[in-house]
Amino acid sequence: MIPHKTKKDMKGKHLIAAILLVFNHHLQAQVTKTFTIQADHLTAKIAPTMWGVFFEDINLGADGGIYAELVKNRSFEFAQPLMGWQKLGDNIPEGSLAILNRSQEKPNNPRFLQVDSNDPQNKIGLQNEGFRGMGIKRGLRYDFSVWYRQLKPGLRLHLELVDSAGNTIGEGFLEPEAIGNQWQRAQTSFHATQTCPKAKLNVWFEGQGKIDLDMLSLFPEDTWKRRPGGLRADMVQRLADMKPGFIRFPGGCIVEGRELASRFQWKKTVGPVEDRQLIINRWNTEFQHRPAPDYYQSFGLGFFEYFQLAEDIGAEPLPILNCGMACQFNSAEQAPLDELNTYVQDVLDLIEFANGDIHTQWGKLRAQMGHPAPFHLKMLGVGNENWGPQYIERLELFKKVIDAQHPDIKIVASSGTDPDGERFDFLNRKLRELQVGFIDEHYYRSPEWFLSHANRYDNYDRMGPKVFAGEYAGHPPQVTDGPLENNWGAAIAEAAFLTGLERNADVVQMASYAPLFAHIDGWQWAPDLIWVDNLRTYGTPSYYVQQLYATNKGTAVVPMLADGQAVSGQEGLYASSTIDQPNGELLIKVVNYNHKPVRGMFKLETGKKPTKEADQILLTATDLKAVNSFDDPEHIHPQTTKIAVKDKTIVADLQPYSFYLFKVKLK
Fold first, then answer.
1. Selected catalytic residue, list 69, 385, 441, 485
2. pLDDT digits (tens, 9 = 90+) for 483-496
3. Is 206 annotated as catalytic?
């Protein structure tokens, strides 16, 4: 006989039963997947260069970005000589602030400012707006320098940093000493009293006299490694934290130029900074919806600085040089084959600059710039996103000379702009016939493309040229706000694709996301790996995906199978595994691209004994549209916990739309 129950008791009973029913249904619905990792079976070595970074001066990446100069148009060489500058003063006499041109005397830096003041009571000056303002930090020292020629003594420079409201937040003075027609360099320093993300610099000319000025410059003291005139430390640190195997520079499409005249010429970017010839940046007018008329290349960040940066962060340098072809989407200009010697010689001279003895012409220049030791260049690119038979016939000429004189240098060659189609097929075939060192493949595609192509390299030729996945990024459809394009949906698709690159490390030996940096107030292209403003940086979800791969690459690939097959999209799962032999560590990467959790059973087939616990690193978000931001820079970031290892097995409930890394120590 059933005891009497109240209605309240019955409702409670039914509620508990309903909860148990839902719970049991959830357990039955959750998929269990078994993965077998053959940890003692090494299938391919992983190149130290496997995961790297690609730098291009786009999105204010160099000037206004990683190059820490705060003054825009410091030498008055923009098309409009005073762009970025504004005259100061209530009554500026005609001719007291004039731009002069000495093109015959100094063709690389012809313009300078002449200040002629005859009234000591009349205050005149110039204000520089910086690159979308100047990021100024309270208490930090700022170093001002200028080249001058004092024709009539009596003027001093009064320097002011002012905030958005015009309040002075730092000031200093510079009194030129030398008199005569010889150019001199002078400098002074002062400290900021407040922090301001969009400050400006006032340069007042006080007194009575006449002076010529050029290269008015302002740097913070806290540059990378405290190098005067150096790089922005927080941006370099983002790169160093990735431990990249290589850094490709200087691009990208700026290597080609819109036409040959505006191509990147490395020889114009080395030597004294004041002698480097500024040119317009090709991204200045490339995108009509994101115009940047003040975007130029000062080349304060030149090839010496690129090599030095690579050395600083422990990355192999990978310079890319023009092959005698301008951008084929723009002018498609080509240097005639019988005039290609200049371009080929640029390559030979660059190798000498990087590796040559200090008694050679270009090795001597490297030493004079402060680096007597060679940079140990091992590879270089000939052309960027060039295509067609005209590219192949030019590449053949370069290869013949490089192979003859520097057979140890590996050539990176372009496979065009797309990862498939007639153009790609032609280049892929020809480059394999030429036996180049690396074929540079690019893919800017939708997240769905990356998910469906994780097995792209499973059946590639293992004996031919290696693949350089030189530029890739997931581009979410129907997203037009730059920072919002770097969402979790794109990043997790990239993570899935990278399992295929890692699994095929005998084919793919270099890979880099692109572009690298974007300034929030000056970007032209999105998505991008790292976003910056004048004072801050943050890594996107894609940044953390790249970082997890780069800092956990291992030394060799080991098979990871499910149902006897590589895990490459079956049931929304993607996986790869490697082993770090020197550290005795097994590295398992797995992506669950499902809206439901998956129970993963990871069985380790190894003669070694794993520790009882492993590190579990999780990267996830509940919303595929989730992003990081300046206000919430670690909304999506790696989270590390411990997970049990029992009987050489890890059991983990893989959350929906998540990327996992398991690090297992093997004794």
1. 385
2. 999 999 999 999 99
3. no
